[in-house]
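Section 5.1 Outputs to date
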Amino acid sequence: MEIRNRFSVSARRMGRSIIRELLKLANKPEIISFAGGLPSPGTFPAAELSGICTDILTKTPHVSLQYSATEGLSELRELLIAFLKDRGLVVKMEELLVTTASQQSLDLLGKIFIDRGDTVIVENPSYLGAISAFKAYGVRFTTIDMDNEGLITTDLKKALAELKKSAGGDAEYYQNMPKFIYTIPDFQNPSGVTMSLKRRLELLELAEEYDLVIIEDVPYRWLRYEGKEVPLISALDKGRRVVNLFTFSKILSPGMRLGWVTAAPMIIDKLVQAKQGTDLCTSAFSQAIAAEYIKRGLLDPGIEANIKFYRDKLAIMIGALEEYMPRLPGLKWIVPEGGLFLWIMLPRNMDADEMFKRAIDHNVAYVIGSAFFPNGGGHNTMRLNFSYPSDEEIVEGIRRLAVLIKEQV
């Protein structure tokens, strides 16, 4: 039987994650890998979670081992509403949905917004997981470049004007204009750039002018190591056009597979309907653990401990780059104010894709930057993760990478 002929258009469009495939190549003990986006196991509160698991299984197994409402456990949702309120975002119960991590949110958003041939706007580069999730629904990407203030809104304004011009009359406007703008404004993955307040306000103005939805993905927002916090775009939004994606993966544990979405009630309702056809509900056990973790006052101290831990690791990587990297025209890196990644730009005549296999021979691995450019480009870029390797591995891995770059020159 020719199975390929039975697959849907969406399935035929799917592809394996480049990052996951690269990790397989780097899965040798002698290789120092900067490729994954893995939080450090040293930040996982295993002892606290062990006690919490025992308590909830003893006291409330009828809740934690049962199905939950699709929207999520009421107790957890109330705690998350309070968490967000303390951080400048006010939402109601009907505006929050618990998800199986934020990656599920990306897929659900594709499901409720994207028809085959639709356009969405993304930063250039953008998060590979979002690109993959949206691509499965047959999307076309309009990419907007970034600078040190984030997405370049003057370029966005020009792109929207061109798209409107080609969209036709009023009847075709909503059919042909972009379905949404996807952005990671805080310590963007992969570039590490944080969008300025000025750009956030300009982005909102353009979204209002063209009546567009903004998807604001903030998985790293609570991991800020320096600089002043910039308000969430959603906190500046008066028209409820911003959808926020949050996750516990970077502030508690990725193994919990737990996240949440905030949006206008009509959007949340559609996400609930889509989720019911996907997994019915997120694990009640994971939700009960997270709720108890927050109730015991452990979340905020845990975040602060993670910030100190990762700030030190970022400083070690920057120090190693400054010590070992050759001084080449065009070789530079972006120092992020938070998050888990550092973005390297090589001289334009160098190709990080071609260099990857040689990197494996040098027992060091990274993620090729071109994977984050949905319409091509970025072959002279790479993303490095500093959260997972040990301090010693960071220094030695950067030394190996510097040797490789010198050889390429």
